[in-house]
Amino acid sequence: MKKTNYATLIALLLLTLGLAACKPSTPVDEVQNKNHDDPKKIELILFDCHFHGNDVHATAQEKGVKYFTREQVMILEEVPGKGWQVSPKGVDRFLVYGGKNEEKIPDLSSIIDPAKRDWTDRTFNAARDAGISLRQYGLLIKMYDKEGKEITGQFATNGEDKRHQFFFTARNIRPTKFGDPTKKYDDDVYHYMYYYYFDTDPWDKTLYSGAKYTGISNPIGLKGFMEFPVSEIRFELQLTLLHARSSKFSGEGGRPSPFYGMTTKQRATDVVDINLKGIPFIVFANTGEYVKTNTHDLSKLKPEEKLLVEKLSDAAGITEQEALNDLWCMLFGEIPEHDSSKGRHL
């Protein structure tokens, strides 16, 4: 019988393990091996908001408003064979006020390109730095997998926050029926829709509950607020979620890109997890327009009030009487007492 040389076998085994340990590992392409699930449903929650210092708080809803509510929720679902579709369970368009009082088209040259703003010497202050319009709208983005489980946090934890950033671009900008038909509008710029990243650490907490603001240093876009400097326009929002192969900080000086678009390098080397086009926004009226006559009778309205009713009726696809009832409730209806402990915060 042949004798087994155990010393030789052990030596060979150790050599094999040593070779395996020293073999160079193949670099992992993070884009091909994502550390998150792919969203199959997205909720866009847009709400009228105001500031308490740097805290962004939802404005309470007046009672009786039926169509033009302070909070609007759009649900998008990926349908097999059809792609992303707007669900009938939510709104099919976002209706917002824009501009400043009696200023339908402000001096757009005064709006600073976010890529050129100097944030290095101070902390962003919402109440001070906003003001392109007199009306602001908070935006929350929630994502879900095919089973309906929320997966938003997967894009903000385990290092994924360094790779992901939402971009918000206004496209196909054009006047409403009541806007200036001679005005030319340019796509892919920031003048008509301005977005402020308001992400926090932890991602699912708020400044009101003690979280740290990271919207400048590490913008993701899971939450933020918007302003619309020009009124009487409509556009389609393109919502894009960047997935960088290594890091999203590829702008000048290692800074992240501005809200309206990726850098040339990002477009060439990185990919996107989400690219939704055609989300309808209608900036139907100027923020200084109100129905000030205490009446539900259309015939008793002043000409400018009747015009506002027509604008909301056209934008929302409702009757003029329904539009008047909502506008009346917003000024003359029962307004809940302000309570910071209630309502949404960013």
Overview of this structure, please?
This protein is α+β, with helices and mostly antiparallel strands and 346 residues long. The chain has two domains: 41-289, no CATH class; 291-335, no CATH class. The longest helix is centred in the first third of the chain and has 17 residues, at 6-22. 33% of the residues are buried. Strand 3 and strand 4 form a beta hairpin. The protein contains five helices and 13 strands.
Q: State the share of residues found in helices, binned by percent.
A: 10-25%
Beta-strand residue percentage: 25-35%
Low-confidence stretches: 1-28
Question: Helix count, per DSSP?
Answer: 5
Task: Give the mean pLDDT.
Answer: 88
Main sheet, how many strands, which sense, barrel?
7 strands, antiparallel
The rounded Rg comes to 25 Å
What's the count of strands? 13
- Overall geometric form: globular
Q: How far is it from the N-terminal to the C-terminal residue, by CA?
A: 79 Å
Count of domain modules: 2
Class of secondary structure makeup: alpha+beta
